[in-house]
Amino acid sequence: MEDKEDISSDNYANWFALYHLCQNIGSRKAIHISSVEFGKILNLSQQTASRRINQLEEIGWIQRKIVGKEQIIRITKKGADVMLKMYKDLKQILEEILIVGEVTEGMGEGGYYVRIKEYYEQFKVKLGFNPYFGTLNLQLSDLNKELLEENLKNRIPIKIIGFEKEEDQRIKRTYGSVDCYNCIVSRLDDQDTKINAAILKIKRTHHKKNIVEILAAPFLREKLNLKDGDRVRIEFTKN
Question: Which of 78, 207, 219, 238 is exposed most, by the fewest CB atoms within 10 A?
Answer without folding.
Answer: 238
